[in-house]
Design brief:
Low-confidence stretches: none
Order of helices and strands: EEHEHHEHEHEHEEEHHHHHHHHEEH
Number of domains: 2
Number of strands: 11
Shape: globular
Mean pLDDT: 93
Helix content: 40-55%
Radius of gyration: 19 Å
CATH class of the largest domain: Mainly Alpha
Structural class: alpha/beta
Strand content: 15-25%
Strand order of the largest sheet: 1-2-9-6-5-3-4
Distance between the termini: 36 Å
CATH topology of the largest domain: Dehydroquinate synthase-like, alpha domain
Largest sheet: 7 strands, mixed
């Protein structure tokens, strides 16, 4: 993953954020945090693996180390963060930095958006999933009971440093989770990215799609991760710029998420694994309705499978799925509306899909 960093400008209403992707971009934080009072929330596992790089980037600013995973996205953890910010005395003109995966960035972003009625936020995603999803677009959130992200705000990061060297220690499962979101953005708006991933499907299967999902990759330089990340972020940036607050076109980014968010807690899946199932279901339904071709559906399912992602599952209890899908925050006036692929690079919004249709397609 060596080479120059790639830069994307992310427009969010009147604000503009810089996204840098490449090896060594974490070092850019040293310049940013020196311009104003700053504090940082850091993923504990990342701190253990990359302590020197993080210490150099953050210097002597206050740091709170927290575990990764959905357990951090709770009201109790948010209150813990507020109390820590109070002890540090972070002022309203200060800066909160989040260094970690998507769950930590979701919670840190929410804390930044509400502390002192809003302080600036900087994100340093350390997983592929966070780099192409959670760090981009300004959404912040925590969970409540078994609901995914019902409490949140829009608070875009002013700077994002996606340092690809920090991803070298990620287990295969985390790469798979990130690839699901990368494939999603390709389906939404980048046929070129989809073709690029397809062209390397055999290598993706050999490197990521098989083997112990807990082991890190042996070689993270063999595939063009920096360029793939930049292309995926570019797609999301264009969608977000057209609809910052998700009133219309931005709903395209929910492809695979309506069912995915329900399956994630019910089946004990990672976020990308659940979204993969949601996308496989969506493209099967789209093909059955003639909205997309059967060949399009096959290409999507085959690419997901090549990345070691699930494309079928035994349906969980219908009542539980209904409860979670109907209560999903994206529903409008009590109706569940889906995003369905029309072709690679184009999706259709507001498509009616019943839970029974979805569960039938889930089984393949």
């Amino acid at each position: 993953m060596a080479g120059k960093s790639r830069e994307i400008i992310i427009k969010f209403g009147a604000s503009r954020g810089r996204y840098l992707c490449g090896a060594g971009t974490l070092g850019r934080l040293s310049r940013i945090r020196s311009t104003r009072p700053a504090a940082a929330l850091v993923d504990a596992a990342v701190a253990r693996r990359h302590g020197r790089a993080i210490a150099e980037a953050l210097g002597d600013i206050p740091r709170l180390s927290r575990p990764a995973g959905e357990s951090i996205k709770t009201m109790a953890e948010l209150e813990r963060t507020y109390r820590w910010l109070a002890r540090t005395g972070l002022p309203r003109d200060g800066l909160l930095i989040g260094v970690g995966g998507g769950t930590l960035l979701d919670m840190a972003g929410l804390a930044a958006s509400t502390w002192g009625r809003g302080v600036a936020f900087v994100a340093a995603p350390t997983t592929l999933l966070a780099a192409v999803d959670a760090a981009v677009g300004g959404k912040t959130a925590i969970n409540l009971d078994r609901l995914k992200n019902p409490i949140g705000t829009f608070h875009p990061a002013e700077f994002i440093a996606a340092d690809t060297t920090l991803m070298a220690t990620l287990p295969r499962r985390e790469w798979r989770n990130g690839l699901a979101e990368m494939i999603k953005t390709a389906i939404i708006g980048s046929p070129a990215l989809f073709r690029g991933l397809e062209a390397r499907a055999s290598q993706l299967m050999a490197d990521i799609g098989t083997g112990d999902r807990r082991r890190p990759l042996a070689d993270t330089t063999a595939l063009p991760w920096r360029d793939w990340i930049a292309e995926a972020v570019g797609v999301k940036a264009r969608v977000v710029a057209s609809d910052p607050l998700e009133a219309g076109p931005r709903q395209a980014l929910n492809l695979g998420h309506t069912l995915g968010h329900a399956l994630e807690p019910l089946l004990g899946l990672g976020h990308g694994e659940a979204v993969s199932l949601g996308m496989a279901v969506a493209v099967r339904i789209a093909a059955a309705r003639g909205l997309c071709t059967g060949r399009c559906a096959v290409r999507v399912v085959e690419l997901l499978s090549a990345c070691g992602l699930p494309v079928t599952a035994a349906p969980p209890p219908r009542a539980e799925v209904v409860r979670l899908v109907v209560r999903d925050k994206k529903n409008r006036a009590g109706e569940v509306r889906w995003v369905l692929p029309a072709r690679i690079g184009k999706v259709e919004l507001d498509q009616p899909v019943t839970v029974d249709d979805a569960l039938a397609a889930l089984a393949g």
